Automatic annotation (TrEMBL), chain A:
GO terms for molecular function: dipeptide transmembrane transporter activity. GO terms for cellular component: plasma membrane. This is ABC transporter permease protein. Pfam families: BPD_transp_1 (PF00528), BPD_transp_1_N (PF19300). Keywords: Cell membrane, Membrane, Transmembrane, Transmembrane helix, Transport. The chain crosses the membrane at residues 9-30, 102-123, 144-162, 198-218, 256-287, 307-328. It is found in: Cell membrane. It is a multi-pass membrane protein.
UniProtKB/TrEMBL annotation, chain B:
This is ABC transporter, periplasmic binding protein. It is found in: Periplasm. The keyword Coiled coil does not apply. Residues 1-23 form the signal peptide.
Length: 335, 532
């Protein structure tokens, strides 16, 4: 097991280096000189331009800038935001719980609907339910998040008035964060009405963010289930005279869920990418919205370090999923 | 144990801060998070709305809804005859805000004023650099050429401050009404310096303005309370909340749903919906901006005013504006400055559409080909340079001039465009800083701005004399006359095609009173009230 773990970690290293290069190169390939972009229409005098270039370290050769960046990142120094002047890691830590909370509820939404739907579709393969579910999943998978979010806001918040338009909690509730997770904090304070408000604010963004994972999970569950249902041991179980519910629920599902768990783990990347749009529409104070703001402000330090931090998280989660997979399925370890 | 204590403290804070249910609360759905709350260090309109216009005051202020200067922390000021020395007399008994993080022991005095400016240029001042915040650049202080014009700031006595200039500069007064010129507390700065928490100066602001800072949840909500000792009288609103909502459609839905009272910058596509709604009002105003197209006046045949007039006449400006701005609308420009700015001359009219007349002049001048410049960026004064270029290209083709569209990415575009020898017609624009006409005329068309921001490379003696004289004259009546004459010269010489001043909008619920659109693009909440 240890060997397997080490092997996985070694495999991660080239990816990590690749990411630092991408994050570094990406912000430098964006059109627009960062200093001129900061100066706006006013422009800057050539002398001031040189001064600023030196202050921000843009006067150094590119490889040296990269070396500094890697050195700083390796020592946990992710730089200071050009616009807010706060350490990037500080803002990241403040905002990240909001993204986790939203992603968590989105994933719950996707799993609670996706897994049962996938099972039913597999069991009733070829039925109208199966066909329409797979059709819907395809639509869900290709849903433009931005448009979908606005559509839901206009209908449920604007027209029906059922859900709040945006934000994390009603403005009348005001307390210092403890964990940073609104649903947890409200309960810690013992404020049930605040908890309800936090939940109601989660509904639309979680649905929007969960739409693509829902489609993926439903399709994956269906195909995994179909594969398992054709296996010998399922036939044996049926032949033993077990009830259909027991065959599907215990014998088939447990084995079918293995690839589904991997799929769910891989959704972390999709969720973080989707959070960029979802958070912007729903004014959700997480890292997705923060990245978009920073791109518009040409805050290269934040974009570069934010990309790296997000990539690190996705990689860490994938690593954990790999390991968990090995735990559930011993055959993998040997391979 | 420590965790338990933190939890208890948080609980206490919650119960104390939570008890404001019956207060009158105004919610403003702002468009972006403020970078920080020190207006000397930031540059965005949303930064200023959240700091300088709520928490701070300045020596002089802009009249609410206008660009004229009126007394602020200074009740009055004297300007020496040579225009070099400004003496400000401060309002007595002005209180700084008392919060849970700062309790002032004295009223505002001359030390605070001197400190507020000194920190922005004096490298010896501990608040000037890294010790306070990393990567400080003081963009507006340098951008408004303050280092060039200011010789020194001096305290005469507690309530008198003297500013000495290096040369006469009438727009200085307008500069002092700008956000970067907000007056901060020296006592608070000293306290933070002693406790080693200097960065708090930018996150927990203390000023003398109408509202005091209560709390900021990063990227989400900013809370303020009315400053009870505000020197112009406590505001009618008890609590002011900024709900940060970046998406324009969500912002408007929030106003329509009653989740906020005021929201700026609606999407043009939503304007119809807003107008049809009974609960809200759509406010609009010509913004403090101009979209225009500079001809290089040094390269024949564009050096002849009649050729430039003819090119202007060949463009169907009404159709162009309609196509570019669509539902959002824009005010066709007659002058370089917008009608909301003082000294705007209503007698001056821009060239009317007359392709027949234009055709003849252009044929006589032998103008057959021209470069027409366009960039990729959306600007407030021009939502689509490329589309504008295509429409103008089609109009010019009708009068026998073939335009070649030249495109670059925005930064490179301006780099290339400002070069003295750049040929053809260059689309550009400007958003004003301080509401002073000098900020348009001299910044964009002074002889000294050639190669910097005078994209027409235009240096006209009459025009230059007028604007330089206006810059050195401190009497506003006199200055108005000079700028009016300058506008007449500008129209006659036509160094540019003037397109439009784009409209700026805000959506306000009907029970809100006292909110005004500001030509400077700021959002102010002093004087705003709300009926329950």
């Amino acid at each position: 097991m240890l060997r397997y773990l080490l092997h996985k970690i070694v495999l991660v290293l080239p990816t990590l280096i690749g990411i630092t290069i991408c994050a570094f190169a990406f912000v430098r390939l964006l059109p627009g000189d960062p200093i001129l972009a900061m100066a706006g229409e006013h422009g800057v005098s050539p002398a001031r331009y040189e001064e600023l270039k030196e202050q921000f370290g843009y006067n150094l050769p590119i490889w040296q800038q990269y070396a500094h960046y890697v050195r700083d990142a390796a020592t946990g120094n992710f730089g200071v935001s050009i616009s807010s002047k706060r350490p990037v890691i500080e803002d990241f830590m403040t905002l990240f719980p909001a993204t986790i909370e939203l992603s968590f509820f989105a994933l719950i939404f996707a799993m609670v609907l996706g897994i049962p739907a996938g099972i039913v579709a597999a069991v009733k393969r070829g039925s109208w339910f199966d066909q329409s579910l797979m059709g819907t999943a395809l639509v869900g998978y290709s849903m433009p998040i931005f448009w979908w979010g606005l559509l839901l806001i206009i209908f449920f918040s604007g027209y029906l008035g059922w859900t709040p338009v945006s934000g994390r909690i009603g403005l009348q509730f005001f307390f210092k964060p403890i964990t940073g997770f609104m649903t947890v904090d409200t309960l810690l304070y013992g404020k049930l009405d605040a908890f309800r408000s936090a939940l109601s604010h989660l509904v639309l963004p979680a649905v929007v963010l969960g739409t693509i994972p829902l489609a993926v999970i439903a399709r994956q569950t269906r195909s995994a289930m179909l594969e398992v249902l054709g296996e010998d041991y399922v036939r044996t179980a049926r032949a033993k005279g077990l009830s259909s519910a027991r065959v599907i629920g215990v014998h088939a599902l447990r084995n079918a869920l293995i690839p589904v768990v991997t799929t769910i783990g891989l959704q972390v990347g999709t969720l973080l990418a989707g959070a960029i749009l979802t958070e912007t529409i729903f004014a959700w104070p997480g890292i997705g919205k923060w990245m978009v703001d920073s791109i518009f402000k040409r805050d290269y330090v934040v974009v570069q370090s934010g990309l790296l931090l997000i990539a690190l998280i996705v990689m860490a989660v994938n690593l954990i999923v790999d390991v968990l997979y090995a735990v559930i399925n011993p055959r993998i370890r040997a391979a | 144990m420590k965790k338990k204590l933190t939890f208890a403290a948080a609980l206490l804070a919650a119960s104390v801060l939570g008890g404001v249910a019956n207060a009158k609360t105004l919610v403003y759905c702002s468009e972006a998070s403020p970078a920080n709350f020190d207006p000397g260090t930031t540059t965005g309109g949303n930064d200023f709305d959240a700091s300088s216009r709520t928490v701070y005051s300045r020596l002089v202020e802009f009249k609410h809804g206008g660009t004229e200067i009126e007394p602020g922390l200074a009740d009055k000021w004297d300007i020496s005859d040579d225009g070099l020395v400004y003496t400000f007399h401060l309002h007595p008994g002005v209180k700084f805000q008392t919060t849970d993080y700062f309790k002032p022991t004295r009223d505002l005095n001359a030390d605070d004023v001197v400190f507020s400016f000194d920190r922005q240029f004096n490298k010896e001042n501990p608040w000037n650099g890294e010790k306070y915040l990393p990567n400080l650049t003081w963009d507006y202080y340098t951008g408004m050429d303050m280092p060039k014009y200011v010789a020194k700031w001096e305290k005469v006595d507690d309530l008198t401050v003297k500013l000495t200039l290096t040369e006469p500069n009438a727009p200085m007064l307008a500069n002092l009404g700008m956000d970067f010129a907000s007056i901060v507390s020296k006592e608070y700065a000293e306290q933070l310096e002693k406790s080693g928490k200097m960065a708090d100066f930018s996150t927990k602001p203390i000023g003398t303005g109408p509202f005091q800072f209560v709390d900021y949840q990063l990227d989400s909500v900013i809370r303020y309370a009315a400053h009870p000792d505000y020197f112009k009288g406590k505001e009618k609103i008890d609590d002011l909340v900024f709900a940060i909502t970046p998406d324009a459609t969500a912002r408007i839905q929030k106003v329509l749903a009653g989740e906020c009272d005021i929201a700026p910058y609606p999407n043009p596509a939503d304007i119809g919906t807003i107008k049809a709604n009974q609960d809200v009002t759509l406010m609009d105003q010509a913004g403090l901006n101009i979209g225009y197209m500079s001809y290089n006046t040094t390269i024949p045949p564009l050096d002849k005013p009649e050729v430039r007039h003819a090119l202007n006449q060949a463009i169907d400006r009404e159709a162009l504006i309609k196509s570019l701005f669509q539902d959002a609308g824009a005010t066709p420009a007659d002058n370089l400055i917008p009608p909301t700015m003082w000294s705007w001359d209503k007698s001056v009219k821009f060239d009317s559409y007359d392709p027949e007349a234009a055709k003849k002049v252009l044929a006589d001048a032998g103008l057959k080909e021209i470069q027409l410049w366009a960039s990729d960026r959306v600007r407030p004064y021009n939502p689509n340079f490329q589309r504008a270029a295509e429409l103008i290209q089609a109009d010019w083709a009708k009068v026998g001039v073939k335009a070649e569209i030249v495109s670059y990415e925005w930064t490179k575009y301006r780099e290339e465009g400002k070069k003295k020898e750049r040929p053809g017609a260059f689309q550009i624009g400007w958003t004003g800083d301080n509401g002073d006409p000098d900020n348009f005329f001299a910044t964009l068309f002074a002889c000294s701005a050639i190669g910097v921001s005078n994209y027409s490379s235009w240096c006209d003696k009459d025009f230059e004399d007028l604007i330089q004289k206006a810059k050195k004259t401190s009497d506003q009546g006199e200055r108005t006359k000079l700028y009016e004459q300058a506008q007449v010269v500008f129209q006659k010489q036509a160094p540019a095609f003037l397109m439009a001043h784009s409209q700026v909008y805000a959506v306000v619920r009907k029970n809100v009173s006292g909110f005004m659109m500001d030509p400077l693009g700021i959002h102010r909440f002093d004087g705003v009230d709300k009926a329950e």
